[in-house]
Design a protein that fits this description.
Length: about 260
């Protein structure tokens, strides 16, 4: 087995493992926070980007074999994204996740309009949210310490035993959102698609990112075209937009180059 692999047979990590994963947690916390700031991205994108980022720079064939960095990366990104999602909600009134969307609706119902003036008009509310976020992590730690032993025992259960429960939870969760059987069929279709991708060794990350961000892109594209009366030139009038397009093109070219080099090797 790889030297970095560990066996999950205890509830708490050793100090050596904590020190080893500390740089990973710091890096991925930054990645997760930035992902959380992006409107509509949320914790899911933070987890995926953190894992992919750490895998690119640290993986030596040990990720997926028990390397603790493979767990620390997405968890750090997920936790940091929760705080980052508050930034666009409080400063721009744009929810960064499903949770902050609920918070935004609650604030509006109370007659509070999130935006740049919120920090000057209601500083007690803003700092109260920050304090609640801090206390929530403490409560989470206190509750997890006595229950972590139970969580680790779940890992020992065979896959064939866990899979029916996981599928059931997925079906119940999807159906509970819109009470639509069509949503269940879509979920099943994507489950089959994911299985095919896994067998063909095709990365699922771009598909997941498209599903997470596609709806947000469509809504804003429709809004922009409504403002311009259907004129697509509005998408190129802003200097900021042109910079983003250029950055995206550069990153795409870099990804293609690295992929081509990896294929030749």
């Amino acid at each position: 087995a790889p030297s970095d692999a560990v066996v999950v047979n205890r509830a708490f990590a050793r100090m050596g493992e904590v020190l080893k994963t500390a740089p990973t947690m710091l890096r991925c916390s930054l990645v997760g926070f930035v992902a959380g700031v992006l409107p509509g991205a949320g914790a899911s994108l933070g987890s995926f980007l953190s894992y992919v980022f750490e895998k690119r720079i640290s993986d030596r064939g040990t990720f997926g074999t028990g390397d603790p960095r493979g767990v620390a990366a997405p968890e750090a990104g997920n936790n940091a994204a929760a705080g980052g999602a508050l930034v666009p909600m409080l400063t721009l009134g744009v929810p960064g996740s499903g949770t902050t969307a609920i918070m935004l609706a609650l604030l509006i119902s109370l007659g509070i309009s999130p935006g740049p003036l919120l920090f000057a008009q209601s500083p007690d509310l803003v700092w109260g949210l920050f304090a609640a976020l801090f206390l929530a992590n403490i409560v989470l730690l206190v509750l997890n310490l006595p229950l972590v032993g139970l969580f680790t025992r779940i890992l020992a259960l065979p896959t064939w035993f866990l899979l029916p429960f996981v599928v059931m939870v997925c079906f119940v969760g999807v159906y509970a959102i819109n009470h639509s059987t069509f949503d269940l069929m879509v979920m099943t279709a994507f489950g089959v698609l994911g299985y095919v991708f896994r067998k063909l060794e095709i990365s699922l990350v771009p598909v997941v990112l498209g599903l997470l961000l596609g709806d947000l892109m469509e809504q804003n594209l429709r809004r922009a075209l409504s403002i311009s009366g259907g004129d697509f030139s509005i998408l190129f009038d802003s200097t900021i937009a042109l910079v983003i397009y250029g950055f995206t093109a550069v990153m795409l070219v870099i990804a293609i180059i690295f992929s081509a080099r990896g294929g030749r090797r």
